[in-house]
Design brief:
The chain has 244 residues and is of the alpha/beta class. The protein has 12 helices and 9 strands. The strands form 4 sheets. Strands 3-5-4 form a 3-stranded mixed β-sheet. It has a two-stranded parallel ribbon with strand order 1-2. Strands 6-7 form a two-stranded parallel ribbon. Helix 10 (195-205) links the parallel strand 6 and strand 7 (210-213).
């Protein structure tokens, strides 16, 4: 298992030697080189090897699992500043299309997969957004905004952007990694009462499908069916999609 996030994102910024400062500024993680010395060393080494080494790791992998935390950071790690896919993301998408790679995620690692890019060359007709922040109360009060998620604690520091609450429902209109093109993904669904925020975002973006995944629950998806033009009926979704 290799920690790709910090290494890939730092390499994109062409400041490999500044990894500690990058982690502090972007991740809000300080002194990682001291607290998690082994993990930090692996990130540094991966960063120094460059993109081709990461793509080679992906090519040899049977599966990739995206961790939780902040989906915006995973997005930044695998997409360039203009939103285009990195070489690493292109390698993941191609391996999934060829059914050589299984991809999973938890929490933010699930949410980041939303996006229609998987079928960008053929069947994609609409854009699937990625949810990035917010709770149900603020979603019902203030709606959804296509904007960067407010920094945690911005209210206390009085630096929330555009007078937004730090719990404002925000989303990336162009989607996340594009590994789940069928609709919006949300997590910790019943546990954190996120039903309303997902419905508000689905309505605001006119997205046909939105899936909320509870904790200790998995959504199993075979995109080859969609690629072959087979669209499951509502009854089939239950039998072949969700397992407790």
């Amino acid at each position: 298992m290799v920690a790709l996030n910090g290494g890939i994102a730092t390499r994109h910024h062409r400041e490999t030697a500044a990894l500690p400062q990058y982690l502090a500024n972007i991740h809000g993680s300080y002194r990682r080189e001291q607290i998690y010395a082994d993990l930090f060393t692996s990130k540094q080494q991966l960063c120094e090897k460059g993109s081709s080494a990461v793509v080679a790791l992906i090519a040899d992998a049977d599966g990739i699992f995206f961790n939780g935390g902040d989906q915006s950071l995973t997005y930044q790690a695998l997409r360039h500043s203009d939103g285009s896919a990195s070489a690493e993301l292109l390698a993941i998408l191609e391996a999934v299309k060829q059914k050589r790679l299984l991809v999973g995620g938890t929490s933010a690692g699930t949410a980041v997969m939303s996006g229609s890019q998987f079928f960008a060359d053929d069947t994609a007709t609409t854009t699937v957004p990625m949810i990035s922040n917010g709770d149900s109360y603020h979603a019902l009060q203030y709606g959804a905004k296509a904007a960067a998620a407010p920094w945690p604690g911005c209210r206390k520091e009085q630096r929330c952007p555009d007078e937004m609450s730090e719990r404002q429902l925000t989303f990336t209109a162009t989607g996340g990694l594009g590994l789940f093109p069928l609709g919006i993904l949300d997590t910790h669904f019943a546990e954190r009462g996120r039903q309303a925020r997902l419905l508000v975002l689905q309505q605001a973006t006119q997205t046909k499908l939105a899936s909320g995944v509870d904790e200790a629950t998995a959504l199993l998806v075979d995109l080859s069916l969609q690629a072959e033009g087979i669209v499951p009926t509502k009854s089939q979704w239950r039998s072949r999609g969700v397992y407790q």
